[in-house]
Amino acid sequence: MKKIALCIVALIATAPLHAQNGIDGALAEIEANNTTLKALQKSAEAQKRANHAENALADPEVGYNRLWGSPGSIGNRTDVSASQEFDIPTITGAKGRLAKGKDNMVEWQYKAERAAILLEAKLALIDAIYYNKYIAELERRLSHADAMLRAQSKSMEAGESNKMEYNNVSLNLAKIATEMKKAGAERQAVMRQLERLNGGQPLKVTEMEYAMMDFPADFHSWYQQNAEAHPALGYARSQQLTSRRQLSLEKQSALPSISLGYISEKTMGEHYQGVSVGLSVPLWSSSRRIKQARSEAEAAEAMREDAQRQLEGKLKEKYLLAKGLADAAAASKKALAESDNSRLLAKALQAGEISMVEYLVGLSYYYDAIDDTLTSERDSQKAYAELTDFLL
Questions:
Q1: pLDDT tens-place string over residues 62-103
Q2: CA 96, CA 57: separation in Å to the nearest integer?
Q3: How many CA atoms are closer than 13 Å to the CA of 16, on its beta-carbon side?
Q4: Sheet with 270-280, side-by-side order of all strands
Q5: Which residues contact 33 (CB under 8 A, 6 or more apart)?
Q6: Residue 65 φ then ψ, to 5°
Q7: Residue whose C-alpha is closest to residue 198's, from 120, 113, 111
Q8: Is the pLDDT at 369 greater than 90, yes or no?
Q9: Residue range 286-319, pLDDT digits in tens
Q10: Contact by Cβ (8 Å): 238, 105
């Protein structure tokens, strides 16, 4: 029994090594390789080109007429004309400003989609680090349990312990081995997820520690400093500005457009040429378009106000959750450090003060506390990642 206890003490003293955090580097690699982001970038570029496709004057109009006279004595007639229409929105730059506003909306939409993909990646990276830590802990437990079983076997052969104690130690080893296989399979699934997000390229994650969480002391101040960067609010504000520009364009479109051109007419012995001026007055459809644009502008204003209220409320909820989980994780870690009975259990077993069953039960409480701490750390990291996803 003393040999078993001494082996336990030696294994408990073994501590895992920790690597530096590299989540930022992994996220940068994923952003460079992610096929969905590449497709979204091309889609955004195409949409911007489409926004500017009509940002130009109407095409010039050229006409040619050849008329044969009857009777033939009057000769033939040739007409040549060229004209260019000038509309007010193009001349004043209203179409260009509207196109730039739509470009801004496309950019905010891309930022929202990018943030969603990088958040998925960051949550998976947090899971990968969690499994690195958990599997390392299980490996330590497995080594411990294996050494206990070998020592218990020798003790039973020497007549110092019985079959029941050996079976209990054996079951403890089997339980840890099963949990390790399960954790390994779950980690493998996370790594496949990261490989998919990384454009099909394997991603190596060896970190054993998370990034530091920089919680603001005051939510309101943090929100005021960072809200402008949130895609939901940026898109709503951009949509509001674009709707105002659309209204301005429709008002200018209600003004007459001017057409300037050149006309030439040739007949037998006669030639007429000069300048043509035309005026197009939109009488029938401009009023309805202006009313529609005004309604859309009012709707965009209401949506912006709602987006601002909703965003502040949602971020406040995420902040409180993340802060609460971080506090819980810190408390769990502190309690684990202050209530580590692993060495005391080993000494009590060595002194014969407790049985092997009592030792295994006490050790299971300690293991449960470690598991709870690892889970709390992971959950707080995920909550913080969801709070700050738009800052990635």
A1: 999 988 888 877 788 899 999 888 888 888 888 899 999 999
A2: 11
A3: 17
A4: 61-67, 77-86, 257-267, 270-280
A5: 198, 199, 201
A6: -125, 135
A7: 120
A8: yes
A9: 888 899 999 999 999 999 999 999 999 999 999 9
A10: yes
Q: Which amino acid is at 297?
A: A
362 token code pair: 């006490």
Q: Please answer whether residues 155 and 169 qualify as being in contact, where contact means their C-beta atoms are separated by less than 8 angstroms.
A: no
Q: Give the CA distances from residue 45 to residues 55, 105, 166, 235, 296, in Å, rounded to whole numbers and listed in that order.
A: 16, 12, 69, 17, 25
Separation in Å, CA 267 to CA 68, 176, 262, 270, 272? 10, 105, 17, 5, 9
Report pTM: 0.84
Task: Tell how far CA 378 is from the center of its chain.
Answer: 18
Q: Which residues of 191-221 are buried (b: 16+ CB within 10 A; e: fewer)?
A: bebbebbbbeeebebebeebbebeeeeebee
- What does the angle CA 139 – CA 141 – CA 143 come to, to the nearest 5 degrees? 70
How many CB atoms sit inside 10 A of residue 243's CB?
Answer: 23
Tally Cβ neighbours within 10 Å of residue 170: 16
Directed axis angle between helix 231-253 and helix 286-338, to 10°? 170
Q: Do the beta carbons of residue 374 and residue 185 sit within 8 Å?
A: no
Three-state helix/strand/coil letters over the chain: CHHHHHHHHHHHCCCCCCCCCCHHHHHHHHHHHCHHHHHHHHHHHHHHHHHCCCCCCCCCEEEEEEECCCCHHHCCEEEEEEEEEECHHHHHCHHHHHHHHHHHHHHHHHHHHHHHHHHHHHHHHHHHHHHHHHHHHHHHHHHHHHHHHHHHHHHHHCCCCCHHHHHHHHHHHHHHHHHHHHHHHHHHHHHHHHHHHCCCCCCCCCCCCCCCCCCCCCHHHHHHHHHHHCHHHHHHHHHHHHHHHHHHHHHHHCCCEEEEEEEEEEECCEEEEEEEEEEECCCCCHHHHHHHHHHHHHHHHHHHHHHHHHHHHHHHHHHHHHHHHHHHHHHHHHHHHHCCCHHHHHHHHHCCCCCHHHHHHHHHHHHHHHHHHHHHHHHHHHHHHHHCHHHC
